[in-house]
């Protein structure tokens, strides 16, 4: 029940990100861009299974992670789409991170009376909630960022550079013909 002297909180624009076996709920402002598949620079044999490697996005090298593998310790699923997210932890060399998705994000509105579902949360999940009859998980993105930095695969000082042969990819200029 709302009090007449307290203004109603506006609904938050959010996104439901489909993963394998779970759906993440994030504020829409966390998404920098949704992209189709990009070439992935593999993480290497010593990398944890959740670190899928790095992608080149807007002239940046961005770490590509499997949230469900990091949260549950399981094997990462096949890569279908990529969500590039704004990093939230304030770590110097990590401005963005990319999550592997299993489909297209769906927009939704989150009201202030969002209900906890009572489901058990995995590591890196702050809360399990029910939204429009669907279970969703609120991820702990700063903890995911810290996990990445703690592996030493990405440093706060500067992200590892792309190999020299990938630094200068050909660009199309305005008015240039494109062979299809």
Automatic annotation (TrEMBL):
Location of the region described as Disordered in the Swiss-Prot/TrEMBL record: 160-180
Domain of life: Bacteria
Name used for this protein in its record: Chemosensory pili system protein ChpC
Organism of origin: Geopseudomonas guangdongensis
């Amino acid at each position: 029940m709302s009090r007449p002297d307290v203004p109603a909180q506006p609904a938050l624009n959010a996104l439901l990100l489909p993963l394998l076996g779970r759906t993440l709920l994030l504020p829409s402002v966390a998404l920098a861009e949704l992209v189709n598949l990009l070439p992935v620079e593999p993480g290497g044999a010593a990398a944890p299974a959740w670190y899928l490697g790095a992608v080149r996005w807007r002239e940046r090298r961005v770490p590509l992670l499997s949230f469900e593998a990091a949260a549950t310790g399981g094997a990462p699923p096949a890569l279908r789409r990529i969500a590039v997210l704004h990093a939230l932890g304030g770590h110097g060399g990590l401005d963005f991170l990319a999550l592997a998705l299993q489909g297209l994000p769906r927009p939704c509105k989150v009201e202030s009376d969002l209900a906890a579902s009572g489901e058990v949360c995995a590591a890196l999940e702050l809360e399990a909630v029910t939204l429009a009859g669907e279970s969703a998980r609120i991820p702990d993105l700063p903890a995911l960022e810290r996990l990445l930095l703690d592996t030493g695969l990405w440093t706060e000082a500067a992200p590892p550079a792309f190999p020299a042969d990938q630094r200068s990819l050909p660009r199309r200029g305005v008015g240039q013909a494109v062979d299809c």
